Amino acid sequence: MQIKTTPVGHIAWCEPSAKDLTPQDFAVSVWQTKNAVVGQSKGRYTTWFVKTDSAQTWVLRHYWRGGLIGKFNRDSYLYTGLMQTRAMAELAILETLHQEGFAVPRPIAANVVRFDVRYRADIMIEHVAGAKDLVAYLSLQPIAEQQWYALGQLIAQFHLRGVYHADLNAKNILLAHERFYLIDFDRGELRQPNKGWQQANLDRLLRSFNKEQTKLPSLAFSQQCWQQLIDGYRNVNAI
C-alpha cells in the first residue's frame, strides 16, 4: 500500500494503475459523465461498478452510517488517525489477505476526506467477474453438498488466520465459477484465534441464512446444508 496526501485528505492505493486517482474519482458522478458505470449492487446503500481506461472493473463503495445514528449523521466519522479510518483499515486487511492468497477481492484504493475532527471515506476493490452473492445464487438454484462443505472449510481457514469478519452474512459471500469469496471487511480485524468470536461469527452467519429464508421460503437452504458447512469447518479445525 502506498499513500499520498491530497488537498482534502489522503488516498492509498495497492493497484499501480490507481496511483493517479484524485478525490473526485471516488464520486460516482465522475464515472457517470464518462459512461463508465457498468453496474450497481443495492443493499442498504448502492455500490457502483465502474470500468477503467485499462478495461478493469472496480467496485466503488462509500462508507455510510447505519442504524439510528445514520438518521442524523449519514456518513461522517470521528478521525483518530489515518490508519484507524474505516477505509484505510479495510484496504490494509484486504491487502494482507490477498497477498497471502485468501479468497478476497483484490484491493484497489481508498480515499479519506478530512474536515475538522471528522472524515468521510470511500474504497475501491476489484469486481469479481461473474460473481453472485450467495443469497442471489440460492434464490435461483441450490449448490451441491460438497460446495457447502468447501464453504465451511474456507471460513475455517479465515478463522485459523485470525480473521474476524464483523458482518459475516450470506450476502457477504460471493460465488463465482465454483469458487467462494468473502467480501466487505469493514470493521474487520486480524485477531488472536479464539473459539468465542469464531462461534459468534458462525452464529451470525446462520441467523442471516434463516432471516433470508424467512423473506424467501424457496431459498435453497436447509439444516442439512448448514450441517455440511459445519462439517467442512470442523474438518479444517481438526487438522
Automatic annotation (TrEMBL):
Transmembrane segments: none annotated. Its EC number is 2.7.1.166. It is a peripheral membrane protein. Keywords: ATP-binding, Cell inner membrane, Cell membrane, Kinase, Lipopolysaccharide biosynthesis, Membrane, Nucleotide-binding, Transferase. SUPFAM superfamilies: Protein kinase-like (PK-like). GO terms for molecular function: kinase activity. The active site is at 167. Pathway: Bacterial outer membrane biogenesis; LPS core biosynthesis. Catalyzes the ATP-dependent phosphorylation of the 3-deoxy-D-manno-octulosonic acid (Kdo) residue in Kdo-lipid IV(A) at the 4-OH position. This is 3-deoxy-D-manno-octulosonic acid kinase. It comes from Shewanella metallivivens. The lineage of its organism: Bacteria, Pseudomonadati, Pseudomonadota, Gammaproteobacteria, Alteromonadales. The gene is kdkA.
